[in-house]
Amino acid sequence: MADSKKTEGSKGRAYRRMPDDFAAVARRLNGASVIAEHYEVPRHTAEGWLRRLRSATTG
Protein backbone atom coordinates (compact mmCIF):
# COMPACT_ATOMS: atom_id res chain seq x y z
CA MET A 1 0.00 0.00 0.00
CA ALA A 2 1.26 3.47 -0.86
CA ASP A 3 2.05 5.94 1.89
CA SER A 4 0.37 9.26 2.31
CA LYS A 5 3.04 11.42 3.93
CA LYS A 6 2.68 14.91 5.26
CA THR A 7 5.64 16.60 6.91
CA GLU A 8 5.35 18.30 10.27
CA GLY A 9 4.10 21.83 9.84
CA SER A 10 3.19 21.49 6.18
CA LYS A 11 -0.16 23.01 5.31
CA GLY A 12 -0.50 21.68 1.76
CA ARG A 13 -2.18 18.60 0.45
CA ALA A 14 -0.66 15.20 1.21
CA TYR A 15 0.32 13.37 -1.97
CA ARG A 16 0.90 9.65 -2.21
CA ARG A 17 4.30 8.61 -3.43
CA MET A 18 4.55 6.37 -6.45
CA PRO A 19 5.54 2.89 -5.23
CA ASP A 20 8.98 1.61 -6.22
CA ASP A 21 7.49 -1.38 -8.05
CA PHE A 22 4.92 0.70 -9.93
CA ALA A 23 6.38 0.31 -13.44
CA ALA A 24 6.35 -3.49 -13.19
CA VAL A 25 2.85 -3.57 -11.69
CA ALA A 26 1.54 -1.13 -14.32
CA ARG A 27 2.87 -3.33 -17.15
CA ARG A 28 1.32 -6.42 -15.58
CA LEU A 29 -2.09 -5.01 -14.64
CA ASN A 30 -2.55 -2.56 -17.53
CA GLY A 31 -5.33 -0.27 -16.33
CA ALA A 32 -5.83 2.57 -13.86
CA SER A 33 -8.80 0.98 -12.08
CA VAL A 34 -7.03 -2.33 -11.55
CA ILE A 35 -3.85 -0.58 -10.41
CA ALA A 36 -5.85 1.58 -7.99
CA GLU A 37 -7.46 -1.52 -6.54
CA HIS A 38 -4.07 -3.25 -6.23
CA TYR A 39 -2.56 -0.35 -4.24
CA GLU A 40 -5.81 0.56 -2.45
CA VAL A 41 -5.72 4.17 -3.69
CA PRO A 42 -8.27 6.29 -5.58
CA ARG A 43 -8.35 5.82 -9.35
CA HIS A 44 -7.26 9.42 -9.97
CA THR A 45 -4.08 8.71 -7.97
CA ALA A 46 -3.28 5.69 -10.15
CA GLU A 47 -4.02 7.78 -13.27
CA GLY A 48 -1.60 10.45 -12.07
CA TRP A 49 1.10 7.87 -11.46
CA LEU A 50 0.52 6.45 -14.94
CA ARG A 51 0.83 9.93 -16.50
CA ARG A 52 4.06 10.53 -14.58
CA LEU A 53 5.46 7.15 -15.63
CA ARG A 54 4.60 7.78 -19.29
CA SER A 55 6.15 11.26 -19.26
CA ALA A 56 9.33 9.90 -17.64
CA THR A 57 9.70 7.14 -20.23
CA THR A 58 8.92 9.29 -23.28
CA GLY A 59 11.26 12.11 -22.63
Provide key terms for this protein.
single chain; 59 residues; mainly alpha; two-stranded antiparallel ribbon; 3 helices; 54% helix
Written overview of the protein:
The protein is mainly alpha-helical. The protein has helices at about 20-30, 30-40, 45-59; strands at about 5, 15. A two-stranded antiparallel sheet has the order 1-2. The termini are far apart.
Task: Please render the helix and strand layout as text.
Layout: E1 4-5, E2 15-16, H1 22-29, H2 32-39, H3 43-58
Apparent shape: globular
Largest sheet: 2 strands, antiparallel
- Helix and strand run: EEHHH
Task: Give the class from helix and strand content and strand pairing.
Answer: mainly alpha
Share of helix, binned? 40-55%
The overall pLDDT average reads: 87
Give a short summary of the structure:
It is built from three helices and two strands; from the N terminus they run ββααα. The chain has helices at 22-29, 32-39, 43-58, and strands spanning 4-5, 15-16. The mean pLDDT is 87.
